[in-house]
Amino acid sequence: MKFSILLPTRERLELLRHAVESVRVQDDADWEVVISDNASSQDVAGYVASLGDARVRYSRTDQLLPVTQNWNRALEASRGEYLIMLGDDDALLPRCLSRARALLAQWRDPDLVYTQALQYAYPGVVPGAAEGFVQVGYNAFLTQGATRPFVLAPETAHTMVREAMRFRIRYGFNAQHFIFSRRLVDALRAKGPFFQSPYPDYYAANAMLLAARNIVANPEPLVLIGISPKSFGFYHHNRREGEGVDFLQNFPSPEMRARLAPTWVPGSNMNDSWLCAMETLAMNFPERALSVNYRRYRLLQYQATLREHGLRAALRHVRWWEPLLYAPAVLAFGFAYLLPRGLRSRVQDKVKAMFSAYPRFDAQRRTVPYRDILEAARGVSR
Predict the structure, then answer these.
(1) For 185-193, which contacts have Cβ atoms below 8 Å and span 24 or more sequence positions?
(2) Distances (CA, A) of 363 to 136, 372, 382
(3) Which helix (H) or strand (E) holds 205?
(4) For 334-343, what is each residue's pLDDT tens digit?
(5) How many helices (H) and strands (E) does the chain have?
(6) What Rg do the C-alpha atoms of the chain give, in angstroms?
(7) Cβ(104)–Cβ(80) under 8 Å?
(8) 3-class SS at 141?
(9) Cα(224)–Cα(325) distance, rounded to whole angstroms?
(10) CA-to-CA distance for 156 and 209, rounded, in angstroms?
(11) pLDDT over threshold 90, residue 141
């Protein structure tokens, strides 16, 4: 069997139907879907039985598991040569698997394919976007004008990991970007479970870039990543991260909490989980001498607290010497108002980049009329 589509799910049957159907309509039939149901109260088993398709395999846990544990559960039940992780609110684009098979043949079965993906936001999910939209995420090695697949140099892959350790996003960590081989999974077993930390994709994405012997980068989108009313993206965009954490059960372990206690500061759960993923990566790859930039983590948390609760709350946890590090950049930002408009914009953009996890880029967002992700997958592929 060539492809295993890993599909962990919980309480989102109405979305899961679209994800499964996006696989069943593929023009390559050599696949399995592995649904790992995380103690849903909905009749997911009945839905799977109604399909009458032996390639769609289902198992359910009676006890609610953390999201990372359920991802590993789906992985361990799979049998394919290559694997794709698909969220239950995501979708494969038409011809995804046949294009993936052609890529694997062309590049002689690489350990890893990193493919471009599109993001689809359901109407009203993102504040200020009453209609649905499609956009791309930032991928540094796919934004240099490449129009065809190419081999990603190990040095570039390792630079991406080092940037992640510095709390800078230079490529999409979402697991949906990756088509990874069974032998890469087996090679990483020495590091523990394939998915680790409260953000399993943040960890696994960077672990794969470190461990893969050959990586192909594909600028053609093959997957549509959903931002649905029940996704963590929804909770994050709507400042309801606590609810998202409760839904995913992605809490740091007591051991990790104790290890990082001197570094923690209040702010965004996203940054906390990112920190756990990078700390885990550094622990598991001592031969790489990876260094977590705790100062940058704290800076991002101060900004998150400033946005949510104001200056006084942000300053409550600042170490006395930290403002000295950022004062020159803040002064430069203010001084730029005295410069001509064009130069002012360039200076201020550079300062903003220093304080942001993302570089400035064009997400190519466009409003679309689609009612759900399956309709969107068909529409954007025309």
Answers:
(1) 185/75, 185/83, 187/111, 187/211, 191/284, 191/285, 192/284, 193/68, 193/72
(2) 5, 20, 20
(3) helix 200-211
(4) 888 888 988 8
(5) 16, 11
(6) 21
(7) no
(8) helix
(9) 40
(10) 9
(11) no
Indicate the burial class of 365 (C-beta count within 10 angstroms; 0-12, 13-18, 19 or more): middle
Indicate the DSSP class of residue 190: G
Cβ distance 215 to 209 under 8 Å?
A: yes
pLDDT tens figures, 328-365: 887 887 888 888 988 888 888 887 877 888 888 889 99
CA distance 337 to 198: 42
CB distance 13 to 37 below 8 Å: no
Cα 225 versus chain centre, distance: 9
User: What tokens does 253 get?
Assistant: 């372990």
The number of C-alpha atoms within 13 Å of 42 and in the hemisphere containing its C-beta is: 14
DSSP state at residue 39: S
Mean pLDDT of 74-84: 98
Q: Where are the domains of the chain?
A: 246-354
**Structure token pair of residue 272:** 């906390």
Taking alpha carbons only, the member of 322, 280, 279, 278 closest to residue 302 is 322
Tell me: pLDDT of 301 over 70.
yes
Residue type, position 123, single letter: P
Q: Pick from 154-168, 244-258, 311-325 the range whose average pLDDT is largest.
A: 154-168
CA–CA–CA angle 242, 246, 247 (5° rounding):
115
Q: Compute φ and ψ for 267, nearest 5 degrees.
A: 165, -130
Bridge partners (DSSP) listed for residue 205 = none
The structure tokens listed for 160 are 């991406």
∠ CA 358-326-282, rounded to 5°: 55
